Amino acid sequence: DAGVIQSPRHEVTEMGQEVTLRCKPISGHNSLFWYRQTMMRGLELLIYFNNNVPIDDSGMPEDRFSAKMPNASFSTLKIQPSEPRDSAVYFCASSPGTSVYEQYFGPGTRLTVT
Amino acid sequence: RKEVEQDPGPFNVPEGATVAFNCTYSNSASQSFFWYRQDCRKEPKLLMSVYSSGNEDGRFTAQLNRASQYISLLIRDSKLSDSATYLCVVHGSGYALNFGKGTSLLVTP
Question: B101 to chain A: which residues are within 8 Å by CB?
Fold first, then answer.
């Protein structure tokens, strides 16, 4: 079975450029989560969707970050413009059902902004 | 104060040793608790859920103390393959989970 798929796996970009991260959740899962992980702050929840609807985006750092989920099998996280402090590993996770279940993480996108 | 706090370690233990990690959480209303494991440069994966009565999975035992708001993970007979970062996880609001920053374990031969 395919797990959560993320692309790209690595992204190196220059400050000011737009970055788009992509995620395909596990088929049949209702909830999708975007996280950011750094050494200093650990794993932080940025936003999550339930049935394609954004439920809580209070973790999104600022207006430079936006996320969409146009259908049940695809989500994007966009940073525009990117800054060096955005460098981190970005994980997408999905979970089944409508209550708190195990979250299945994708392999992550390692973003470096120079 | 962070919602979930853990000792970052690292814990360096020899093979066969028993090691225990604790974490504390701030939201007394939290109902669900988990331990996740994260290998170096990999994604987190669920290790086990933590039940009120405590639960065991092979060499791993998880305990919950609601009164003191802490969760523990005990690993017996440590293996080299147990080397990883262990993340304490507490249910937040809605469907969100709050992750601790993790405790690093290194098991040495």
Answer: 41-43
